Amino acid sequence: MRSSKRALLSKTRFAAGMSPDVCKRLAALAEVADVPAGTHVIREGEPIAALGVVISGRIALRLNVPGVGQQTILTVDDGDVFGWSAVMPGSRSTSTGTALVPTQALLFDRDRLLAAMAEDCELASAVYQRMLKVVARRLAATRVQLLDLYHVDHAS
Amino acid sequence: MTLDSGRFLPRGELEHLFTALQADGRRVVGPTVVDGAVVYDELTSPAQLPVGWQADMAPGRYRLRSTGGERAFDYTIPLTSWKRFTHPSFVPLTRGRHDEGQVLVESVVTDAPRLAFVGVRACEVAALAIQTRAMRAGPLGDADHAARDDAALVVAVECATSTSTCFCTSMGTGPEVNGGVDIVLAELDDGFVVRSGTPAGARLIKGLGLRPAAAAETDRASKQVAAVREAIGDPVPAEGLPARLRAALDHPRWDQVAERCLACANCTLVCPTCFCTSVAVASDLDGIEGSTTRTWDSCFSLGFGRVAGDANFRPQVRDRYRQWLTHKFSTWWDQFGSTGCVGCGRCIAWCPVGIDVREELRAVAPADAPTGPIPWPRSPAAGRAPAPLETVLPATHAVATVRALAAETADTTTLRLACSDAAILAARPGQFVMVELPAFAVPPISISRMLPDGIELTIRAVGPATSAITSLQLGAEISLRGPMGRGWPVAEAYGRDVVIVAGGIGLAPIRPLIDMILKERPRFGAVRLYLGARTPQDRLYVHEMHALAGRADLQVSEIVDRAGPEWTGRVGVVTQLFDQATWNGGRVTAFMCGPERMMQATATTLGRLNVRPAATWLTLERNMACGVGTCGHCQLGPFFVCRDGPVFSLAALGDAFGREGL
Prior knowledge:
The complex is a heterodimer. Chain A is 32% helix and 28% strand. Chain A is globular and about 45 Å long. Chain A has one domain: Jelly Rolls, CATH 2.60.120.10. In chain A, the strands form 2 sheets. In chain A, strands 1-8-3-6 form a 4-stranded antiparallel sheet. Chain A is α+β, with helices and mostly antiparallel strands. Chain A is built from 4 helices and 8 strands. Chain B is an alpha/beta fold. Chain B has 3 domains: 374 residues, no CATH class; 87 residues, Beta Barrel (Elongation Factor Tu (Ef-tu), domain 3); 167 residues, Nucleotide-binding domain of ferredoxin-NADP reductase (FNR) module (Rossmann fold, 3-Layer(aba) Sandwich). Chain B is built from 20 helices and 29 strands. In chain B, the strands form 6 sheets. An 8-stranded mixed sheet of chain B has the order 3-2-8-9-10-11-1-12. A 7-stranded mixed sheet of chain B has the order 24-23-22-21-25-26-29, with helices on both faces. In chain B, strands 15-16-19-18-17-20 form a 6-stranded antiparallel β-barrel. In chain B, helix 9 packs across helix 11. The longest helix of chain B is centred in the middle third of the chain and has 20 residues. At the A-B interface, strand 5 and helix 4 of A face strand 18, strand 19, strand 24 and helix 18 of B.
């Protein structure tokens, strides 16, 4: 039997520490999506339809590099999010998200989510705090990746 | 041995002492005037001593001044030190031949001359002892230094004068000579009070047939040296200095002194205790015959902290000045149990911009400065489990034969080497070997697998030596020295869960650890292996790791920094692999190897997961030219990475780990 949206959300790392009431209200906005491998869930440069939280599976976030092709710069696994730009009104996707394996995700329609957050400060606070954590973690990781450490690393 | 009560040598009979030393089969080395300066050189007669000369020394200044007197030892201190004779600037190490796959490497054995050092000052007596401790402190003694040290006879002369740069009084090294020498002279106007400190010295003095020194003569000698002590005063607040310097690693003065310092290395070259060296490689034109020579080097040189791939751990002058000063006055205590400075003041006079080390010490670590926090444990041994060192002789050049070659990535190759050397075969996970191919530099390479009949080395071709080694053909020979360093403390993880983190080629030193854990698998709890690489194509031992991932008793996670669309694994940084960790860090012993910055990030993440610093082990890379703690390159705070590591616990390293410029 399929788990409820609330049950799915509450088990994720994304919802860790979220009050049960907020979790319930946020879960009410979600749709469960089963994404076949190879499906694009977001596309670089296009408006974002939804914020996604991965329940299981893996999404590759890719940038197109002219002359090189699609380069994966990050993968998103269980409990992590994709399409975080959805919580910034008017923004577009900074990468293309492609399911690498069959993936289950909770999708939060951008317009519904933004409207709910405008009405519900507690919900907005919970979502923005978590978005900030996600972005900060990715920024820190990107900085380390930028250093290209393994290129000049330990010569054994 | 304490000094005897003293006899008197009339000035006119100094020649007899020279003759006695020569009759003992020794060449006499002592002070003499060359090009307007007193230096140490070989002497045949007392007439060559700097009779009637006194030196005025000040920051960036040295001038000889005639006194018109008859005294031979009034110059205070020569511009050069005894290091020239005990630790020469060029020492041949090996000769080798590499022809049609056959390799022969032989050590050059020092034939030390029997020398008599005449005119050794109290501070220099201390310097000789300090140097001896440093050269004999490692798992191995420096054979060249030991031979020269053992063959020398020391005739000290107590100071009757001082100059403005002297501070032996503060360092506890002078001006009195209280032992540690064969003979001590105290120069008076009409002759010398002579005392012996060893049986060899006593025999020589007895042969001179001298009368006992009169009480008035010994009294004059005592008052003379007491006056020198009074004149010098106590210019450096040495009490508690090591701790104050340890606590001052971020003092703004380091930047200020770096603005003046030219990093010319004069101070280290004239220092009687600085012992750092490099290995110079020479080759004939066709690259068949080669030799290595040990040369003086300096922690002030830009390349001193540089490692393969051009990473440099002390790129700025401030880093290098701080290294020198803190080593001399602080970490030397951790390493050798004494000060590294004897207060001779040569570095002050030789500094072309007149940096006065006493002034810098007073600015950085004044007497009332705090002594904490301590950035690392007081002793290198603290915070880590004792691990007995495998002792090998530096003269051991074991020949190994290439039995197999496997290309791991575009620039990395694994060599399977057959070798029958017992020490090599007894290597432990985490140890390394110095790999010598005549005519090429000698890189330290971690052992990537131990085999019953040899070892494997996984080598990234980043320079001429590693390129030559990875280009060897099957059946070719190579020379190995080792194993060296402290390996992974596998037993620390018995009964505990194990987390292993490897980044890039850092997997090579980790691989023998994995082998050993799998061999003794029941001794460990859950074993989790986290691997990072630059791209999928840069992963090492792909098939092996794939096989490990298929085991039920091992969890393998991997991630790459970037990838093309064909890669379906994880992309990101290694720490991302811990996002979903649910294990209990309190039960974990962690081992990691990779770029230092990666290990820093990993250590922080492991800390958040409650893995204790004392249970977090890592291996460091530094410039390792000798492998046994005598070349000085690989220092990190109080540690010699080659000798005290390369495997350390996070607790032992303290704040030394990842600190900029250390």
